[in-house]
Structure formats: C-alpha cells, structure tokens
Amino acid sequence: MIPDFTYGLSFLAPKDLARPTRDRVDQLSNEVASGLLSDPARPLNSDFSEVSRLTHILATYAPHYESLQRGQQWGAGLQAGLSRASDALTLIGEEMAVGLPASDTAAFTSVLATAKGSAQDIVTAMNTSVAGKGLFANGANGNAINDFEALFAEVGGLAASAGDFEAYAAAVDRFFDPGGGYDLRHAATLPPENVSFSVGDGDRVAFDIDNRDAGMTDALKQALLVAGLAQAGFDINHSTGRAILSDLQPRQLASETAVAAAQGRVGALEQRISDRSDIMEASRLAAEQRLNELLTSDPFEASVRLQEEMSRLETVYAITARRAQLRLTDYLR
C-alpha cells in the first residue's frame, strides 16, 4: 500500500518560486557594481584558451620587462664610460696640438699632465660598476683595471728605456697587444661570458665590450703614450715635438675612431633592447585590453538585464500573493 501524503501537503513550506530570479538579480547587481562578469564561461562558451594565453602574456611580462630595463641601464652605463673616454681623447688632442711643438716648457708640461689625468679618467670609467657589477668587467665584482699607478709607471719605464719616440711608441704597442704587459699584469681576469639580458622568446642581448675592447684600450693607450713622455729618456725639443705630434695625430684619429665604433656597437644593442621593450609594452597593453573585453561586463547590458530580472521578480511576487490570496494585513503581521 502506497502512503497518501495529500493531507500533509498543507503542512509543507510553499515552493520558493522567486529564488532563481533573486539569484540572477544578485548576480547582475554584482556585475553592475564590479564591472566584471560573474560567469565568464557564458560569453566565452566555456573556452578559456584565449584567457589563458592573455594571462600568460601578462604573467611573463614583468620579469622580461625588468630584464630589458636592466639592459638599458647597462647600455647607458657603457655609453657614459665611452663618452668619458671620447672627451678625454678630445682634450688630449687639443692640448698636444698646441703644447708639443711649443718651445715653452710650461705648455709641454701641461700636455703631459692633461694626458695623465685623461688616462686616469679612462681607467676610472672602466672601473665603474652598476649594482656592484663591473661595466667593463663582464659583470664581475671588482675593478677592470687593477692599479693605475702601476700601469702608468710601467709605460713610463718604456719611455725611459727607449732611444727615440719611434722605439717608445713601438714598445707601447707591444705592451698593449694581446698577451702583452697590459693584458697579463693590469687588465683584470674576467668571466668568459659577456653580460647578457633576456629580451623574451628565448632570445638574449649580450654587450660584447670589456677591459680588452679596442675602444677603451686604444683610448687608454693613446693617453698613456702621451703622458709617458714625462719619463722619456730621449730628448724632446721644439723640433722633435713637431715630429712626435705628426706621429701622434694618426694614432689619435685611430683611437677616436675605435671609441666611436664601440659606441656604435653599444648603441645598436641599446636600440634593439628599446625596440623589444616597446613591443613588449604594446603587447601588454593589447593583452590587458583584450582580457578586459573578455571578462568585463557591459554596464548598459547588465543594467538592462538587471531591470528585466527586477520586473520578473515583481511579477513572481504578485503572482505568489494572488495565488496565496494574501491581504495587506498579512504583510503587516
């Protein structure tokens, strides 16, 4: 025998017909308030692949962009050092054009003092670091050039032992050749890998410039070559000064060209980093905009739908009240 619950139905709570509508009202109210879709699966048709791709772009943006910023900072530091070397060479060129052929001892002495100061400026620039990492030391801790005074004294010794300027200049060239005194005793031993920075997509940019690069070493050699004349063991007078100047000027031009070439190499890498940075920033903005389009609710559409649900809710309440034959006094109890 099947039990009959007909008489018990009057004791059961009435079915809440307004519950689904109230849930939709709450949902749409949240969308209007937050501007975000409460159910993104609906407009995306449950396909979150595009959202995943865009989220990945935004998640990987920060570390790559930070790397690019460090690369830009590193390039700017290298350019500052090269500019300092270029300025030092310009000053030497101006001074020696006047002081070397002059019969005035003071003018000649001024040239040598300027050259030594310029050489020291170049070494200081080469020993500059960023966040504790040597700019011209492949990112190693410590200086790129070990001891300027020892370096200057050794070049001075070459001048003292030379019979004339040609022999002295040849000795300085050998000293700065790979495997020479500068390479073995004064240029610090560096990590084999050049400093590099990630630019995204598995690609990296490496700054191939260090304490043995032709740009800085040619500038340093030229400054020391002139400064070392203070220790010269050969006679320098008005006549020989002119000859020395004519030998130094082509070297001066070659040194300036080497520095400019290094500046060009660094500048090309800086431009590559800057271009990549602009591309990444544009990609980030596009991803944010697209993600916003996918996950953000249309305020007009949400408001219209909310108004429709509110009207539907009012209708449900009116129907419920009519079917239950509720009076005003029932509401006021």
Question: What can you tell me about this protein's structure?
Answer:
- The chain is mainly alpha-helical and 333 residues long.
- 68% of the residues lie in helices and 5% in strands.
- The chain has a two-stranded antiparallel ribbon with strand order 1-2. A two-stranded antiparallel ribbon has the order 3-4.
- The protein starts with 18 loop residues before the first helix and ends with a helix.
Layout of SSEs?
Elements: H1 19-34, H2 41-44, H3 49-99, H4 105-126, E1 129-130, E2 133-134, H5 148-161, H6 165-176, H7 181-186, E3 195-200, E4 203-207, H8 214-227, H9 238-295, H10 299-323, H11 328-331
Antiparallel strand pairs: 1-2, 3-4
Helix pairs in contact: 1-10, 3-4, 3-8, 3-9, 4-8, 5-6, 8-9
